[in-house]
Amino acid sequence: MDLYFGCRESNKDNIYKEELDVCKTAGVLTDVNVALSREPGVKKTYVQELLVKNEERVYKQIMSKGHVYVCGDAFMASDVESTLEDILQRKGNMSASDAKDKLAELKAANFFHEDIFGANLKAKQEQAKNILSKMGKDVRTVNVLVETPHSWMDANNNCRDRFGGTLISREAVPNLNIDLSATESFWTLEYGTLSQWNDIIGCFDESSLNTGEDSLIFKDNVVGRCSTHCFRNHSFFGVKAGNHCSCFKSIPDSATQKEATNCNNSCEVKGRSTKYLCGGLSDFTVFQKGILVDCGLL
């Protein structure tokens, strides 16, 4: 039995490493393949890439009536299924339709098992529902009220990590099947705050920065959200086109600074006319945690 597991960093969310090592030593698992997408100093790797790397073995296991188990969100599951179809085409000289039919045959014969859930990001939830529907999966929404006090960030992360969902929108509150009469206050998806002052350091070439430390993508207001996210543990952050955010503990002396015109991508702040420069296609606008200065009149 081979296991393919994907997570961000080996020291943060590869939470079953010890148990998997024991299973492999005991012979329960033949091989354990871990894809790390945010490991510092290591190129991003996804489960699909490891499947392709081992496609000869994967193909033989599928054709030998081996069982396939896929667990994760709808996007990952869809990508894995497409990757398996590609492997069947290459190694089995199948057409695209024949490869798709082969996986459908495995599902019908109960050799292809799936435990799939929706997306964490609200912007992708509708797309995830479409993917799940095409896979013949039941799509449902469950409302959960957690009474433990949280900051907005903690509440949002709690919804994501414990329930695979998001905070509800303000407009959806009246439609909840939950009695909120005894609740003094609660968080919704809409949230506004003032970030601290940020100093712009300049425009830097992406390849000269360590963007693998902590990187993610925000739907909107990338400068403000990136600032809030990064400044808990880092002194610098950078943004680039596509709402990409990366946190940095420091900026290397060898980092390549470029002309400001290379970082001319503009990004908007939701609900405001303000626009910021948010890097370029392959360049980051880098900010440093600002120093609070008291101002007054003499």
TrEMBL record:
WSC domain location: 197-290
A Pfam cross-reference name? NAD_binding_1
Instruction: Cite the Gene3D superfamilies for this sequence.
Output: Nucleotide-binding domain of ferredoxin-NADP reductase (FNR) module (3.40.50.80)
**GO MF:** calmodulin binding; metal ion binding; nitric-oxide synthase activity
State whether keyword Ribosomal protein applies. Answer: no
Enzyme class comes to oxidoreductase
Query: Could you say which EC number(s) this protein's record lists?
Result: 1.14.13.39
Which InterPro entries does the record associate with it? FNR_nucleotide-bd, NOS, OxRdtase_FAD/NAD-bd, WSC_carb-bd
What PROSITE patterns does UniProt report for this protein, alphabetically?
WSC (PS51212)
Q: Which domain of life is it from?
A: Eukaryota
What cofactor does this chain's UniProt record say it requires?
Answer: FMN; heme b
Which UniProt keywords are listed?
A: Calmodulin-binding, Flavoprotein, FMN, Heme, Iron, Metal-binding, NADP, Oxidoreductase
Q: Which family does it belong to?
A: Belongs to the NOS family.
Query: Entry's PANTHER family?
Result: NITRIC OXIDE SYNTHASE (PTHR43410:SF1), NITRIC OXIDE SYNTHASE OXYGENASE (PTHR43410)
Put simply, this protein is called nitric-oxide synthase (NADPH)
From which source organism is this entry?
A: Pinctada imbricata
